[in-house]
Known about the structure:
The chain is an all-beta fold. The chain has one domain (2-95): Macroglobulin (MG2) domain (Immunoglobulin-like, Sandwich), CATH 2.60.40. The protein has no helices and eight strands. The strands form two sheets. The protein has a five-stranded mixed beta sheet with strand order 1-8-7-3-4, with no helix packed on it. The chain has a three-stranded antiparallel beta sheet with strand order 2-6-5, with no helix packed on it. The protein starts with a strand and ends in a 10-residue tail after the last strand. The mean pLDDT is 89.
Amino acid sequence: MAYQIGDKVRITVTCKNVTRVISDPDTLRFRFRKPDGTETVWTFGVDAQVVREAVGVFHVDLPLTMASVLTKEWRYRWEAEGTFSAAYEKPLQVDDTGFNDVVQF
C-alpha cells in the first residue's frame, strides 16, 4: 500500500518479553529514515511522539512529508532493550505528488 505526501500514519508496536508476555521494555526507540536519507530517533520517555497506550503497547503518528523521484521508500524500526531485547523494521511507500504546493495536514 502506498501512502500520499501529507498522510499521517499511526504505527503501533506490542512488546513481548522472552516468555511472550506483553511487557514494557526498559528502553524503547522508534527510528525512521526519510527518502532523502535523513534519520531520526524518538525514545519513549524522552520524546512525546512515542505514546504508551497500555502495558507494552506503544504508537507514533508519523507525518509523511516527502517522497522522491529516486525512492519513495521510508523505513521505520522499533528497538526494545533492557530485560528483553527485540526489534521490528519495515518499509513504507509514499507516492510523489504532481503538485508544487502541497498542504501538510
